[in-house]
Design a protein that fits this description.
Strand order of the largest sheet: 1-4-5-8
Shape: globular
Radius of gyration: 21 Å
Helix content: 40-55%
Oligomer: single chain
Number of helices: 10
Strand content: 5-15%
Distance between the termini: 53 Å
């Protein structure tokens, strides 16, 4: 079965549940998708990054939900374990993740630590051979299904904020872990995000990934892996928006004529099409750098450009309809789930947040791409 046929034949079960479907997830593992960029020695398929990008692209063509799994489970977790985990940790956690037998989530953001991630306050105190963890994480995707969480905690509160952070792998069934899924504002029936509370949670010292108080580079590396995949999401979502705008152009506008007869409308739609093609081109350029072992700071450009292009396209469609753009029954483009143009536009604000907000991306671009001095 081809990748896209698998995705299209299984996405209905996923969407009907309004959340990640564990059975479909397991099938992805059996087919090797969840271990695509992981070496065969650690349960993966051993794909290079370009092949992995093509796989993600095919999944994204069917539905955004599958590619999101690849970003969180593979990009944020498995690739971090591959890079920073010990051989024992890879055997224990990476192999079952790559095989789809276990599900991982990622605990970084906190109520008071979003864009300024180094301000995280979840505390882990080393007592004997165990860490005792107390604190809270939020916006933790799929935590209510996950078997464990790659969680970033403060292990040295007296150190500078970037220096006292460590990475722990925490079993989500441990006593004291409380996972609370909550709905999106735009869809009360969709619960993927979670608040996760830790109350005196005991974590064995061997669950420490990387050096003690050396977790900050892991946050930056794992987020870079996520950004390296997000552009595929944005490129295809902008393409979906363009396709829907072309169809919308056949609708009657305020002057009684089809919207598509307006030169300004056609010019805007053509601009969004160019945006989608530019995203694809820049995205593969970044992946080619990964193959050569180089960093790809242009992925911050892709994150910023892609998320904001999508938002502009959805706003344009909603505004083109006038008052009818607020009609919740007038379906817009199919993104993650069905929704009106107005609802899809509201959802698009979320795209400017994960993997680093637009403001953070502008800082990265200024410093690492343009070489501008810090203020």
């Amino acid at each position: 079965m081809t990748c896209i046929r698998f995705a299209r034949s299984n996405i209905r079960a996923w969407d009907e549940r309004g959340e990640a479907h564990p059975e479909v997830f397991a099938k992805m593992g059996e087919l090797g998708y969840l271990g695509a960029p992981i070496p065969e020695a650690w349960g993966g398929a051993g794909m290079d990054y370009v092949s992995f990008a093509i796989l993600c692209e095919e999944l994204e063509r069917a539905d955004t939900a599958f590619r999101v799994v690849m970003s969180v489970h593979v990009g944020l977790n498995s690739l971090a374990l591959l890079q920073w985990g010990t051989d024992e940790q890879r055997r224990r956690w990476l192999v079952p993740q790559a095989q789809g037998k276990k599900i991982a989530t990622y605990g970084l953001t906190e109520p008071g630590a979003g864009s300024d991630l180094a301000s995280l306050k979840t505390r882990a105190e080393l007592i004997g051979d165990e860490f005792v963890v107390n604190g809270q994480k939020v916006w933790t995707s799929g935590a209510h299904h996950a078997d464990w969480c790659l969680c970033f905690v403060r292990t040295d509160p007296s150190a500078p904020k970037h220096k006292g952070i460590s990475a722990l792998i925490i079993d989500t069934t441990s006593p004291g872990v409380d996972r609370r899924p909550f709905p999106e504002l735009s869809d009360n029936d969709f619960c993927d995000f979670n608040e996760v509370f830790f109350t005196d949670v005991r974590v064995p010292r061997e669950n420490l990934m990387g050096p003690l108080n050396g977790g900050w580079p892991i946050t930056q590396g794992s987020l870079a892996h996520e950004r390296a995949m997000l552009w595929i999401n944005y490129a295809y979502d902008v393409q979906r928006a363009v396709k829907a705008l072309v169809e919308l152009g056949k609708s009657e506008g305020a002057n009684g004529k089809p919207l598509g007869e307006d030169a300004r409308y056609r010019d805007a739609v053509a601009g969004f099409y160019v945006d989608a093609q530019a995203l694809m081109t820049m995205g593969y350029r970044g992946f080619s750098k990964f193959l050569k072992g180089k960093s790809a700071p242009e992925h911050s450009l892709l994150k910023l450009y892609g998320s904001e292009s999508l938002q502009k396209a959805l706003l344009f469609g909603s505004e083109a309809l006038g008052m009818e753009g607020l009609d919740l029954d007038w379906l817009g483009p199919q993104m993650w789930r069905e929704g009106s143009w107005a609802i899809q536009y509201l959802r698009s604000f979320g795209a400017t947040i994960p993997g680093g907000t637009s403001e953070i991306q502008r800082n990265i671009i200024a410093e690492r791409v343009l070489g501008l001095p810090r203020a």
